[in-house]
Design brief:
Elements lengths: L6 H12 L5 H13 L8 H6 L6 H5 L7 H15 L2 H21 L32 H21 L9 H15 L8
Length: 191
Amino acid sequence: MLPGMSPVSHGLLSWLVGETLDIGRRGRIAVTTAGLAPDLDGLGAPVEMLSDGALPWFTAYHHAVLHNGLAGVVVSAIAWAWCRDWRVGLLAIAAFHLHLVCDIVGSRGPDGHDWPIPYLLPFHPWEWRWDGQWRLDSWQNLLVTGLALVAITVLAVRRGRSPVELLSPRWDQRVVETLRQRLGRSAGPGR
């Protein structure tokens, strides 16, 4: 199992951050992407596994390249530039930092290794860590994901959209219609 809170959980929480203000679908895509961006430095995992450790790209770079404050500024600037909306930039940096906080709180590996965040890289080697870090497979992480799903369901029924909109507005409409039918609410505001 890879260390860090599940990317699915990070994505759900980041979408919820983007849902706090009326920034449109494009804005929510930018904010959700910003919240997932720190884990791009984990894409070395397959390379490391396929090379039997000869290319330690995951071990060397995950939680090093994109899990820091400078990366947060760059990612939020890209989100702002893509949408030209300062609210998107602010929500993007919030989602990015929520990712880091979630990793600090809930990314202890099954071997007991904690995953600190080198927040001040490349300027200083200080690492942000917490001794009480939950294991990745902890009930606490499952609870956070479950609560995010409940919030998303409530918002889907009330506002008429869910994180499925990131993939396809048409699919999202079907998901929302299904949720409304099953939860007893026919129509409402949305989109």
